[in-house]
Amino acid sequence: MDWISDLVIKRLAQRTNVFLLESFDMKRLQQIKSWDVNKLNEMFKARYDNFVDFDIQRGELTNLATKTKLALDPMASPLRELDNFLTSTRTVALIHYVFMQQHADMLTDYVAAWSQDDRLYVNRSTALIFVADATLFNESVRRLCYQITIEPSTKEERRVILENVATEIERDFADKGVKMKLKVTEDIIQASAGLDLHSVETAAIESFFIHRRFDVKTFTDYKIRILRTYNLEYVQPQIDFDMVGGYKALKNYIRKRIILPLRNPEKASYYGVGLPKGIILYGYPGTGKTYFTEAMAKELGLAMVKLTPADLFRGIVGHSEARVRQITTLVESLAPVVVMIDEVDQIATPREQVLMTDSGVSRRITNMLLDWLGQRNRKSLLVGCTNFMPLDPAFIRAGRVDEICLVLPPDFEARKEILEVHTSKVRKVPIKDVDLAEIARQTFMWTGAELEKLVLDAARLAMESDSKYVSQDHFMEAMKGVEVNVAERKESIQRMIATMRKLENVNRTFLQEAVKEFTKAEKDESRIKGMLEALSL
Fold this sequence. Notes:
- The protein is of the alpha/beta class.
- It contains 25 helices and 13 strands.
């Protein structure tokens, strides 16, 4: 159901006299202003006398039927005049643009009165309040109204706008004697998802003047700018699974359980398989969970929004909750998108621990996130990364999170691949006579992050000595500067595996496969023999 249908049904049902229409898009405002009294009569099954617009910033009243400003009594406030229209005649009043707290405060008493005024119910008089954020009004006032969050744009709306822009540009150039044909492809329509109508139009025009065509990157840049205004990070993934060394079992599992249904929704629907909603990557620090998430987003062909607990929590009471609502609404408007929450354990702590230490903010934020994750129409894919367990069972239950996967340190084969990736794919390092297998053997229990740093440190040593190539000696020298507590890491991994065994939403077949993959590659190493039995399921 679109927002107009929702508005009409709720008004015909006499749900309320006051509607909060939540949107930033000025084109949506123009869309409403384009209605006339005849359209309103048809929509709301009534015979209206007036369609009035109140500009709250200028304090001006305009008759939208005649497009003329109304003469106001200099001794009366514009809101008092508007109140008179609504209570004494059949009137639809459009109030715009409420985007500051002082505007909401100015309207609060009138909104409360209009929402319960019998005269408005009898006349079917209606107040449509165009608001940037409905939470500018306090909760008690919002309960008296009906709130509609207008989606930024639908696929068909974007198609129409892009085609209209293309037609106008082609016509302008034809008038100058230049033939031009602009293509509106499905890629462009998809790339513009999440942008409001005004931004789609602006991005299309900007893209043409930069590239002489509609280019995906321009629309992506618009999304990045939107997220930056909210201090969020938007990532267009540059790495894929080929640039992630090792982890064959994890890659294959993710390809089958996450990527296959998301890239083939019709196939998933045929088998009655719902689309994945989320995955938790649980592993030792530095094992590349964030890196792996970016590669997964690339495999899916989706962009990624990175969140941390710091993006959600605010110091002023009530601001954290408003921030979460703001972010989840924005993320869903940009969907389909991968949402990576780093250190997810900080916002999904078991509630018995939160109750002992928290004032209630963390619990409320978690509840809001749970509501979001549980939405049936959620289009975003959540990937939570954590070094700690357990998480709140409600957060990781089936339906909110589909998979919980253990990310172990790279095994021998994986370490070799990671070294190859960081010397030849991610970056070109001029190595010569370097035995990567030997380096992999000597870096038992090192994480992917530490292996990458080893490559960089070896390259720096070669640069400092003005050597033409990075040699085995440079790697050995760099290795001396790193100390890894192997015994402690063995114990940590064993604890992680034991924790995974206790969780309900874990595929034990995959867990067993991942552990076997880890131990099999190291089986010939005497230093791991003592832990094989403990690691085996």
